[in-house]
Design a protein that fits this description.
- The chain has 61 residues and is an all-alpha fold.
- It has one domain.
- The protein is 72% helix and 0% strand.
- The longest helix is centred in the middle third of the chain and has 20 residues.
């Protein structure tokens, strides 16, 4: 039986491999980027953050 690369499997692997400090740092980064995209509506800043998300491999539309 082959193992599939599923979201559940990735979450379980992350739960084992990541330290609480790494999880907290990742969550803070996501929150900071989300806050910036939500509340900074200056077009140039918003567009640059949007392009950064795409460069990081995050799809949004």
């Amino acid at each position: 039986m082959s193992t599939a690369n599923t979201v559940h499997g990735r979450i379980e692997r992350a739960r084992v491999e990541l330290t609480p400090t790494q999880v907290a740092a990742g969550a803070l980064l996501v929150l900071a980027l989300g806050f910036t995209l939500l509340f900074v509506q200056e077009p140039l800043v918003h567009d640059s953050m949007h392009n950064f998300r795409h460069a990081a491999g995050i799809t949004c539309h």
